[in-house]
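Field: sequence (string)
Field: structure_tokens (string)

Example rows 1 and 2, in order.
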Amino acid sequence: MNPDLFREGVARLRVEIHKVIVGHEALVDEVLIALFAGGHILLEGVPGLGKTLLVKTLAQALDLRYSRIQFTPDLMPADIIGTNVVMQDEAGRRFFEFQRGPIFSQIVLADEINRATPKTQSALLEAMQEHSVTASGTHYDLEEPFFVLATQNPIEMEGTYPLPEAQVDRFLFKLRVAFPPPADLVTIMDRTTGPDQPAPERVAAGATVLAMQALAREVAVATHVKEYVARLVRATHPDGEGASMARRFVRYGASPRGAQALLLAAKVRALIQGRANVAFEDLRALALPALRHRLILNFEGEAEGIDPDEIIRNVLAETPELAAGVRR
């Protein structure tokens, strides 16, 4: 695959998704960036904003197997992974046969992930990190590409189990779904209450997605750009190298996975923008979704209700693109 075909594929996917999804242009672009970066997404927003519809529409536009898992407090790991079932052949002999669960798909919607117990969340964790699952001592590889989009409601917290930091860190992006403006809300009503229900066409297959993911990893990154990523991540920590807000409000900063996520996503954005190398603007554009969920606030930050986005903006403002004495 070449860069022109990459941009054409992204543009076609964007068109098909927007046949159903009204507005949310930046959100759709960030979902596509995460897809072609090979990462997973945590979608946060109140009910009714189209989070589930967005994932379903993406699955319809791609020739990939799709499954939805509704997380509830009584959901068990076997409900996700699958379980061994006693079967009987024609001769009456009984044997165990593994019945695969909904995780054996390529696009998995984990709806309201924070409503499941930590034990069940951990079953999803292995699949996200390893792209494989283990059941009764047997290892099963998941079919590539494998993409998890999890949703959570930030308001209704009763009966929920907050995601552990180790699991949150495995999401490439955390995306916030905003309420639509009045004009978009009118369009949504027109599309959803009329006689015709819009539907996207399938415009890409699994092999195409894998080729696009492989091409993204080949994008060049200059040394001083990689050093900027490292300094951005270091500046989220409360030690001597941290930005002013990080030193005051952060208990733990972003992990090395944050640097990996930011750089890999920036490679995809560079291709979409028609460039063969990562620029500083790519990093600034994707710093919020790549890092916001990796900051752990201290007591003062929690007490004052500090938004991690404010801290990341402060990090961007106080971290120079070039280290002292370095020239482009």
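Row 2 begins here:
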Amino acid sequence: MKRSLLRGWTNDDFHMLEKGVIRAQHQLHETGLFSDESLAQLLDNQPDDFLTISTMGSDPTRFDWIEGDRNGASGREIVELVHAGKLWLNMRQLMKFQPAIAQVVHDIYDELESKSPGFTAQDRSANLLISSSTAMVPYHVDMPVNMLWHIRGKKRVWVYPHFDHRFASQTVLEKVCGGELSEDIPYDPEFDHYALVFDVEPGQLLTWPQLTPHRVQNLGGLCVSLSTEHKNARARRRINVHEANYWLRKHVGKFCNSASAEGIGAQARQALSRAIRLGRKLSAGKAKEQFVYTKSFAIDLQSPGGIRMLDVETRTPELLREAVST
């Protein structure tokens, strides 16, 4: 029998998956897969197209997140820069490129499916988040269902009420699912009065319902978290409903009052979303436009802090806010 990577889970924990906010225990930090040496090797094996390198300011009310280029830096050099500077790395789609991590993720999800009535985890994926001790992640939502398995360092996570349009309006979620906006969304410090706040230690998991707004501030040490994502019939339908609503508002001028993933209306809008995607494929393979950040800096070990700014035009926070308001 395989060793369980879950620790001390209760029946309530298993039953609450995708329904509410859960903090539970795991043993990923004891596997030896996430030492500095292992992280460097993982980075060396990760294709550049699936590695995001970012930096940011210190004010959560200002959106000053920028992305950069690896510029040939080795995994060891990048890990050293994360220790010394203010960087946030996202190694995306790990299960395609990192077999040992893929096996661990499948083991976790298989156990969750076996012990959680009605829970299914399809379209499984995983990202590895490696970040400096003072890094922060702005207010955002994740389109798939997200589970944050914390492994190293300490971070504070604010989780805001889910399915509440005061914190992520229906129009904003439509633009995220429609590809017009990134998953970063408008934030007001007043939202913090309504947030659940967790100081997360190695060996702890946080998870919440799909499209729940949250933000993160590291509190100390190099931070490593495995972020697993999955979909199932309900999760895909919820995204499809928002995408169909986005298309109807943008192209037909019709605003749909409901974003529910249940009922006949949701089924009809899911069918519309699928038809839209089929139409794109038939139109010379045209894919849905997706928001992407301009790379504004490059890793450069000869520059102060290991970062050299590039002379490029960056999409600014002001433009992001304008996109949200229209």
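free_text_note (row 2): Residues 315-326 have pLDDT under 50 and may be disordered.
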